[in-house]
Input
Amino acid sequence: MPDFNHTYIGSLVTRSQANDSDAFAELYALTYRHIYNYAGHYLRDSFLAQDAVQETYISALKNIASIKDPSLFIAWLNQICFHICFDICKKNNQCYGSTDSELIEIIRDERIDHNPEDKFEKKAETESIQKAIRLLPFNEQQVIVMRYYNEMKLEEIASALQCSRSSVKRYLTHGRDRLEEMLRKEES
Output
């Protein structure tokens, strides 16, 4: 996650609100990679991620005047991107909770394993975790993916889901506890 200078970004937002197109272009340049990475992790498709990024910035440009605290632009942009990605995945029937599509890979081993036994065990473990996450309530699924895959901070997740930080912590705690319990039951 990039470390943004929120004060500087806030000044660009203020200028953008005054119809300074160069300021918005700079906001885009500073935040594009972050938003593209988020959309890519969420959608797991580079073409859909590009569409989501485009829709995110169009929406941001149209609604930039509505930002009351310009220093919160990144959280606001994350929220827009989250909702657009969610809508895209729902439209394409690819949501994490969908029974028709496979959940994102929770444990991905990019190495070429020379030991087929280890590879089989790793695949079985991955499938168990994916199955368990699919059984979690929707909000717990989302929070776990955002926290552990997108490496988002609790505040960013709260902003994206439009809930309190304490709700995010609760979803995270309950989700981890349920996952642990389901995986323990599966082992025995």
Notes: The domain at 6-91 is CATH 1.10.1740.10 (Rna Polymerase Sigma Factor; Chain: A). Residues 96-115 have pLDDT under 50 and may be disordered. The first helix runs from residue 6 to 17.
